[in-house]
Amino acid sequence: MGDSTSTPSSAGSPAPVLGKRQQCQNIIQKNIKKNSKVKFLIENLEKSGCRIGNNFIRAVNCDRPAAGGFARGYGIEICSNYLHMEDEVVQAMIHELIHAYDDCRVANLRWSNSNHQACSEIRANHLSGDCHYLREILRGHLQLDDLRLKGHEPVCVKRRSVQSVAAHHSPAKAKIAVETVWDTCYNDTTPFDRVP
Asked: Where is the secretion signal located (predicted)?
């Protein structure tokens, strides 16, 4: 996707469990109806004036290792061939819905602007739970006895945000962009009252 704002999340090889798009699409549809965070984000997208159709979130087979992506005017794609569990599908949905919400609420958002993209990546990584310590342990970035366990979340959010922005800009520019907007964007929990 041209305006894709996500980076790889889990393993780098296609998933045998969710290799079929239809199975992933069924998980998407189930969680649109039943997952409280997904429902909350969709409701807030619509309250903000952005109507989403039945195919706004779609399961696809992706060419590169990724969890999914969002593109303005096109919607959200979830990479069914790179996600291994339902929880990963839901996590990708929440992450991409935050990007969609940012795109809806910020009138002058330009995804090509490294600061704009960095802000949305910070928010998506922070508010979606992408950096929960258990996810970081599964990714190999933390161990249960790791002394960094307590303060890992902001470190993870920065790391993942820089990686995402660096997919579209130089690594140096990505790091500067994340640092520039960090305080404002990390503390912006909209549409949630607090970090979920």
From this structure: none
Could you give the CA distance from residue 59 to residue 140 in angstroms, rounded to a whole number? 27
CB 173 within 8 A of CB 114: yes
Note if 46 is an active site residue. Answer: no
Residue 172 CA, distance from chain mean position = 22
- Determine contact, residues 89/68, Cβ cutoff 8 Å: no
Among residues 88, 96, 121, 136, the one annotated as catalytic is 96
Tokens 């928010």 found at = 123
pLDDT band at 88 (very low <50, low <70, confident <90, very high): very high
Q: Determine the distance from the C-alpha atom of residue 184 to the mean position of all C-alpha atoms in its chain, rounded to a whole number.
A: 18
- State pTM to two decimals: 0.85
Per-residue model confidence (pLDDT) at position 50? 94
CB 92 within 8 A of CB 79: yes
- 181 dihedral zone (left: phi>0; alpha: psi -120 to 50; beta): alpha
The domain locations on the chain are 21-186
Average pLDDT, the chain: 87
Q: What is the pLDDT of residues 122-138, one digit of tens each?
A: 999 999 988 876 666 56
